[in-house]
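Case study: isochorismate synthase.
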Amino acid sequence: MSTQTSAPADAVPQPLLVRTVALDGLGDAGAPDPHDLLDLLPTERPLAWVRRGDGLVAWGETLRVEVSGAGRFADAERAWQDVLARAIVRDEVQLPGTGPVAFGSFAFDDRSAAGGVIVVPKVVVGRRGGRTWLTTITTGARLHAAPELGDVVGPRVPPVDPGTVVYADGAVSADGWKEVVARGIAAIRAGDVDKVVLARDVHARAEHPVDVRWALERLATEYPSCWTFSVDGLVGATPELLVRSEKGLVTSRVLAGTIRRTGDDAADLARAAILAHSSKDLEEHEYAVTSVAHALEPFCSSTNVPDVPFVLHLPNVLHLASDVTGVLRAPGGDAGRAEHPSSLALAAALHPTAAVCGTPTVAARELIRSIEGMDRARYAGPVGWFGADGDGEWGIALRSAAIDPVDPRRVRLFAGCGVVAASDPPAELAESEAKLVPMRYALGRDTSRS
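Here is what the predicted structure looks like once written out:
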């Protein structure tokens, strides 16, 4: 395990100076539009966490902390607390996401060289429940006058489309991946695991360097019920919320069990009914929900696990979904904790869930390492943000792609599928193709999702 801290300047003088003020007039009245926030982003390393027009966008880099190994979550938490201990904060809004904020992204596997990162931006603009705010995070000796949006937003430069995009097999070919799935099924039938989640990557090469804002705006428009994110070159729109922690309440949206949409509404309603009664998909879903409920139990005084999942309708697929909720134990309660665990600590406890790894966790993770044939990097790892009080939102980095930091014309797209004893390799390959649709669409120029 190692931890590295870097920043744009030679050193980051302490303390950090954080100022949050209310904003008026961002966007028109009525339903929030994600473009109101996303249109503020510059081309260089934009940060985003947006859903249904609310959320956070940010840019600049006041501080960056890189971590690795099994201790990456704890190391990131410790570094963030060190930063906060030296911060001078004036927060005039006092909402989740105001004051000091850090964005983060972490590798799926402890052994991955991708490790993890938290980025403390220079500028954050947020919106929640009709209220909008601006946060600036700087360094220096004293707080300055209240910032204004016009002082921190540059001229609007429209996103540039990536041009023609050519796709190729990733670490494992499509046909080869069916063999990977077959090996997973054999391991399940041999009793090695109950369920395993297997992923594949696809390589893309764009004609022009990929403008992250292009992908973000297409994803936020087409997939408004998902959490559209951008952190350190990882971009996507995840339908799965690993954990939200807010004022002692926690929520986790669990997805497992998928069927592709046909594009015909009547046919899709019939497919939703099939999914809701599929023994294979219900089994896969139950493993995922149980793993989340068990991981949250030590931290909560009470939890609520729905008896049956609902069907989540997305433009490309239908998912079985359950929202698991809980109430964190009171500080100093039976568990003897001095305070609530942070949202990042909860994410660390939950990761990896059965929805992205399998059951039992340790055996499934070893099987993935043995047969999957690639490094997932930060795909299927936690991605999101947290604030000074530890509250925040962390999604699972699904429906996502990693942009090559050296050559931004190169992109890795990812998709994974839950495999149980009743799984069929060709069907799993077809499901993975359906899950690649959002990022293929995000990199495209037309309006077709297929």
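For the exam, be able to explain this: Confidence is low (pLDDT under 50) at residues 1-12, 334-338.
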